[in-house]
Amino acid sequence: MNIAVCINQVPDTASRVEVRDGAIEGGYLNMVLNPYDEYAVEEALRVRERQENTVVTVFSAGEKGRYDVLRKALAMGADHACLVEGGSSNDSRSVAASLSKAIRSCYEGLPDLVFCGRESSDCNRAQVPVMLAEMLGMAVLTAVSKLSMENGAFRAWREIEGGMEEYLLFKPSVISVEKGLNVPRKTNIKAVMKARKQPIVHLDGSVDNQQGVQYLDLSPVSRERKCRFAQTAEELARLLHEEGRVVGQ
Asked: pTM, whole model, 2 decimals?
C-alpha cells in the first residue's frame, strides 16, 4: 500500500508576530509542523504498522525552508520526503494543484491513501484536502476523528453537532484528520539524527493556472479603545442611538 501525507509549516503560536510595510516580519517567527498534520503523519504510520508492505511518503509545497518539517516527519517514521517546488504556498488552489502534480509524478497511478490535516493553523481555510481530492479524482472525507481498517476498506467516523457520522471508505481516498484522532509519537535523538541523513526529493510543482486568491496587504489589529461615561440611563440611551448601536423608539 502507498500512502501520501501532505504537510505544511506554520508559525508557532508562541511566536511574536510583527507586521511591517504590509507584510509579516518573518524574522520573529518560529516555523513548525502544522499540528493537524502531525495527526495525519501519525495515522499514516499506524496504518503502516497494521498493513504489511506499506510505504509512507510526505509531501510539502513551498520553499526550501520546509526541510525542518519534512525531517520532523522522517524522524517520526515516514519512509520518504518530497519538497514540492515552483508553486504558490499562499493560495489553496495553487497548493492543491502543486501537490496533485507532484503526487501523480511520484506514483504509477495514484496512492491508495492521502492523509492531510483538517486545516492549517495559520489561515484555517480547510480547503486543500477537498481541492486535492477533486484534482486527483479520489473520494474524500474530512475531519475524521476515528479510523479503523475493515477488509481492505476503512471505517471512519466524524463528529457532527449532537452525534457522529459513520462512513465506509474505499481506496483510493483522501482523508483529512481531526484533532484527537490519535496521539502523535515523540521523536528521539537517534531518529532525528537518522532523519538528517535521509535525502529529500525535489519535485516540480509549478502549475499554469493563476492563483485564486492573492494577498494584497496586511495590517495589525488596532487595539485602541474609546471609553465614554454616562451619568444617567437617559444619557446612555442617547449615546447609543447617536452611535447607531440601537434603533427604534
From this structure: 0.82
Residue 157 to residue 135: CA distance in whole angstroms: 24
Mean pLDDT for the stretch of residues 167-182: 94
Q: How far apart are CA 232 and CA 88, in angstroms?
A: 57
Residue 36 lies in a domain: yes
Question: Which residues are within 8 A (CB) of 182 and not within 5 positions of it... i.e. 6 or more apart?
Answer: 39, 42, 43, 46
Name the pLDDT band for 139 (thresholds 50, 70, 90). Answer: very high
Q: Which domain holds residue 136?
A: 2-219
C-alpha atoms less than 13 angstroms from C-alpha of 158 in its C-beta half-sphere? 15
| Residue 17 maps to a domain | yes
Q: What is the pLDDT of residues 180-191, one digit of tens each?
A: 999 999 999 999
Q: Check if the beta carbon of residue 129 is closer than 8 Å to that of residue 140.
A: yes
Q: For residue range 69-85, list pLDDT tens digits in order.
A: 999 999 999 999 999 99
- Cell numbers 479603545 correspond to 225
CATH of the domain at 38: 3.40.50.620
Residues 6+ positions from 199 with CB-CB distance below 8 Å: none
Output the nine-digit C-alpha cell for 172.
Answer: 483510493
- The full DSSP string for 53-111 is S-EEEEEEES-GGGHHHHHHHHHHT-SEEEEEESS-SS-HHHHHHHHHHHHHHHSSS--
Per the document, the length of the chain is 249
